[in-house]
Specification:
heterodimer, A: mainly alpha, 58% helix, B: mainly alpha, 2% strand, globular
């Protein structure tokens, strides 16, 4: 959806930054957002206060809340789709190849 | 120096949706009582290292909760088959997944904004009463759904579980109606591109291809 949004709104984005945190996503405050998400999902309680403060300093309290909210929503959705075996839509196969991630056989529809 | 929670803007709509979701967790569902649903939630927290105490659950229930809570990407159809072979309804599995996903997402939100976890409420007395969409059949996923299984339809065999998940999700992110309408500005504190970056990175870290 990141790629589709980029295409629809003619906004540049480096989609490879999704899988390589060392790259600049080319999205405003992208590095701060990625670091914040990493700390939440990995439950890194050492990094989380730093990442939260950095995002706050860069983008303000609303960004902290919204980033946590979007991350949380996908924390739930990811668990649901994987646990019940929702297959990956074929239209995402090309992006998976671009990101060099392998869609497991059991999720290929 | 600001405290952690002062670094996040209040979101009263999200808080209200979460409060409603927690009440729902404490209320009897289609297959589990309120007390049983809360035990599933506690086991999810225990599995994620967010609660020191494990509730008293049968091994297959405890292990299923643990897997969904901490390594859902390792789920396989064989796990659903084992669940049914142990005498459990496949739709009880769906309810378990809904409960674990709900509490896990709420907890991740609180952790993210630097707030304390919500205390689990007291169970609301009552027996489970099946609330099942009879049109649900197993098609392209491992559990019954109404229509083909997609992220928005994965829980729709149990309408109450889908409704409560959707109510929280729309406050956090977007309603299903607008998820793929990229030309619409969601009017959030982050742009659509920023939100999609957050979503994509979350899914990547969870080894989820959604």
């Amino acid at each position: 959806m990141l790629r589709e949004n980029s295409n629809a709104n003619d906004q540049p984005v480096n989609i490879l930054a999704v899988t390589d945190a060392g790259l600049d996503p080319l999205v405003p405050f992208g590095r701060e957002l990625v670091a914040f998400v990493d700390a939440i999902v990995l439950m890194d309680f050492d990094e989380l206060p730093i990442a939260r403060q950095d995002l706050f300093d860069a983008a303000g309290p609303g960004a902290v809340t919204r980033a946590a909210a979007v991350c949380a929503g996908f924390e739930g959705t990811n668990r649901v789709v994987d646990a019940v075996g929702v297959p990956v839509n074929k239209r995402y196969y090309d992006i998976a190849d671009e990101l060099q991630v392998t869609i497991p056989e059991h999720l290929r529809g | 120096m600001s405290t952690a929670s002062q670094l996040a803007a209040p979101d009263t709509a999200a808080d209200a949706a979460i409060a409603n979701a927690l009440t729902n967790l404490a209320t009897a569902g289609s297959f589990f009582s309120g007390a049983e649903r809360l035990a599933l939630a506690q086991q999810a927290r225990f599995s994620r290292g967010l609660d020191p105490t494990a509730p008293d659950l049968t091994p297959i229930v405890a292990d299923t909760v643990r897997r969904v809570a901490v390594e859902a990407m390792k789920s396989r159809s064989e796990h659903v088959a084992a669940w049914e072979a142990a005498g459990h309804d496949v739709l009880a599995f769906v309810e378990l997944v809904a409960v674990v996903a709900q509490i896990s997402s709420i907890d991740s939100y609180r952790v993210g904004i630097g707030a304390a976890l919500d205390p689990l409420p007291a169970p609301i007395p009552g027996d489970p009463t099946p609330n099942v969409d009879e049109r649900a059949v197993t098609s392209n996923a491992w559990v019954p759904t109404v229509g083909i299984a997609l992220a928005p339809t994965a829980l729709n065999a149990l309408p109450a579980e889908k409704r409560i998940k959707d109510e929280v999700s729309k406050e956090w992110y977007l309603t299903d109606e607008f998820v793929h309408k990229y030309e619409i500005d969601p009017g959030r504190e982050l742009t659509r591109a920023q939100m999609e970056l957050v979503a994509s990175r979350t899914s990547y870290l969870n080894e989820c291809f959604f």
